Amino acid sequence: MESQWYYFPGQTPQNTKISDRAHALHITKDAWSNITQHLDRKKRIQEAIDREHAHKEALKQGSEEMTKKWPNSVQNLRLRKEEERRHRFEGRGKEDKTALYYKMRAEQEAVRKEYIDKIKKEVFISQGYPKELTSALILSETLYEREKQKEFRSKIKQHDIEVKNRFDADIVAADAKYLQDKKEQEQIKRQKARKEGEFLRNQIKEHEETEKRMNRAHIEKEIRDRIKAAEEEELIKQYELDIIAKKRKEIAIQRKKAMNDKHKRQQLIAKDEEEMEQATKFYSEARQRIDCMMKIKDKQMRDKIAKHQQELHSHVVALHEARDAAEKARLDNAIAQMEANDKAKAEAKANVKAKNRRERIEDREEHFRKQEREKEIDNEMKKWEMLNRMKTAETMKEHDAQNRKNNWEKILQYRRDLLEQMADDRAAQKREKEIDEIMSHVSYDEADKMFFDYANEVLEMAKSKNRSIHPIEKVIAVSMFSFSESSSNAHHSRIIRKPTTYHPGSARGVS
User: Fold this and answer.
1) pTM given for the model
2) How far is residue 396's CA from residue 421's CA, in Å, rounded to a whole number?
3) 339 and 472 part of one domain
4) Would you tell me how many other CB atoms lie within 10 Å of the CB of residue 135?
5) Number of domains observed in the structure of the chain
6) Which regions are flagged for Basic and acidic residues bias (predicted)?
7) Strand, helix or coil at 466?
8) Which parts of the chain have pLDDT scores under 50?
9) CA distance 511 to 500
10) 25 and 84 inside one domain
11) How do residues 394-409 score in pLDDT, each as one tens digit?
12) Contact, 130 vs 507, CB < 8 A?
């Protein structure tokens, strides 16, 4: 992409303004299409759709042109079948209705005969000796399955024995290997323990020798230190005796002063106790016991302080007996510090009392605020309970209406089910009646033929599957014996058989 200025004839850069010049932008076609392709996107999409539609239409027309003359195309087959159907209906009106009736009757008779034969066979094999033949076939199948199960169990048992033997052999081998490994590990441990024992014995021996040398040097040093300390102690005792002799008079003066200070402090403590007893009268009854306990505690504290001061005084007196003027100044500083501490404790106690009073006021205000909040919460809970009762009543009403609707739907569905069941019962009764009518006329010869045909079919089925035929042959023998007994009474006589008096124990019914 590049930009260029153009001049008309007679124009030069010296006599032409920039606004009078021609400016052009040069760009390739592909770059320009990349810039402007978003402007005609819908047009290009529509063109692609049109091209696809034209392509499909061309394919469709080409296919129609190609298959138009095919005799077995879908369209031609449909047209030919429609034409044949139209000709058939047109020609049917010209045929004799009687011939058409007999033709349809023959077709229906064949269908009816096939259906009757099928029903006869199904009913025949479902009762009496044919049913026993079916049971015998099932028994042979059961015996076969039982033999297979026995073989399978024996194989499983043999497999379990083999697995157990292999498992026992593996356990014995693993146990032997474990014992061998354990023996080797114990041997290694014994060797290692032997080496460690030798090393420890050497270490203990070296340690004992080193300890003996160190103990000897330590004992000698300790003896020298004790001798030196005894000498220094004798010097200190002599110095202390000299100080005690010099300072007896000063100690007596300090003792008298200390007793005066003690008397003043006791007076101050008594005064504080009187003020504290008067202050306790202004407290409420609810705080009286607590304040009394605080007073007792304060009194104990003061007694403790007085006792401590007495002990300190005794200690000071003892120190004055054993210390010089510098120690006296330090004692004065200690007394001043103690008095400052007492003053600080008194101020801290006053601050604690003021703080307790503020806390009681704040606790009372917080209690009132808490009561207000609880009251608001109770009111809100009552509102919600009322709303919940209303919602529950509405929900129960809707639930009862839905239950009534569901119960009515169940009643209607039960009625429909009963009607359907009644219709099914009527259809079943009709079918049973048809079967009874079909089976009401069966001759002995036909029954025997049907039985032996079914017996041959069962035998062939058992032999083809390599099953035992002994149960089937036993049923056939019993049925033949029964047939021989019944044939002596009525040989090849046709009777009307009724299913209601049929006995499964015999091959023929008794009317």
Assistant:
1) 0.28
2) 36
3) no
4) 14
5) 3
6) 359-374
7) coil
8) 490-511
9) 9
10) yes
11) 888 888 888 888 889 8
12) no
